[in-house]
Amino acid sequence: MDFKRLMAFFAISVAIFAGWEHFFPSPKPNPAQQAAQQQTAAAPAKAAAEAVLASASPITVTTDTVKAVIDEKSGDLRQLTLLQYKATGDEHKPFVLFNDGKEYTYVAQSELLDAQGNNVLKGISFTAPQKQYSLEGDKVEVRLSAPETNGLKIDKVYTFTKGSYLVNIRFDITNSNGQPVDLSADYRIVRDNSEPEGQGYFTRSYVGPVVYTPEGDFQKVSFSDLDDDAKSGKSEAEYIRKTPTGWLGMIEHHFMST
After folding, report:
1. Phi, psi of 207 (to 5 degrees)
2. CA angle 32, 38, 41 (to 5 degrees)
3. Which of 57, 76, 169, 188 is deepest in the core (most CB within 10 A)?
4. From CA 62, how far away is CA 251, in angstroms rounded?
5. What whole-number distance in Å separates Cα of residue 83 and Cα of residue 95?
6. 8 Å CB contact between 152 and 175
């Protein structure tokens, strides 16, 4: 009986919808106008994506715990595979956390800012002495060198450690121009809002940015809240924005990058 009632309700709903569309049809957009709107909407998104990630010149680093891919030109950490964990959809493959492929974007970036907040590495490409590195001993180091500019010689150095998932990064700077410089490192985790493999309709877990501060403790900040702030030009998402210490991160399933 319940099934018959459900089907009857469904049929009535469809009939009401069809009738409404017949008497009050939805306005049909002009094809030229629709195409223009689509191009306008797509252009900023494409420009933003291209600004974040250019094509990579990969450097591969393999340790006992991870396989990392670093873009030689920018020094971005583009891919990070956790060798001791299985992929959600295929237990014969290792789990991929960072990725810059078509499926999703999840990378780590770093740059140097001057006193005015300008990126001093903008337009500058790094080079490395080799394309592949493997752990031999307790540590492996990848040194990326930028050409000397305005008297500054800058190296971006990655260090991977045996038995660890911590990826250390530092800037080695040599200043030969005779004038003091005020530089600070800026670190970013860049991720789109694609859902990771394994999310189910009834078994969903939080995916997105997180913040920890002594003042606010552990806070989740959803992609949708940040999108709303970006559209409105306001900062209304609820999280602590200024703190003397703490960390930012990105979480999905059981894994978090900070």
Report:
1. -130, 125
2. 140
3. 76
4. 23
5. 7
6. yes
Answer whether 126's CB lies under 8 Å from 159's CB: no
- Does the global pTM surpass 0.85? no
Q: Is residue 239 a part of any domain in this protein?
A: yes
Q: Which domain holds residue 228?
A: 206-258
pLDDT tens sequence across 163-179: 999 999 999 999 998 88
Residue at 255 is within a domain: yes
SS3 assignment for the chain: CHHHHHHHHHHHHHHHHHHHHHHCCCCCCCHHHHHHHHHHHHHHHHHHHHHHCCCCCEEEEECCCEEEEEECCCCCEEEEEEEEEECCCCCCCEEEEEECCCCCCEEEEEEEECCCCCECCCCCCCECCCCEEECCCCEEEEEEECCCECCEEEEEEEEEECCCCCEEEEEEEEECCCCCCCCEEEEEEEECCCCCCCCCCCCCCCCEEEEEECCCEEEECCHHHHHHHHHHCCCCCCCCCCCCCCEEEEEECCEEEC
Q: pLDDT by residue (tens digit) across 124-175?
A: 999 999 999 999 999 999 999 999 998 999 999 999 999 999 999 999 999 9
- Within a domain: 234: yes
Strands 132-134 and 58-62: parallel
Is residue 12 one of the residues assigned to a domain?
no
- C-beta separation of 73 from 54 below 8 A: yes
Q: How many domains would you assign to the chain? A: 1
Q: Fill in the amino acid letter for 214.
A: P
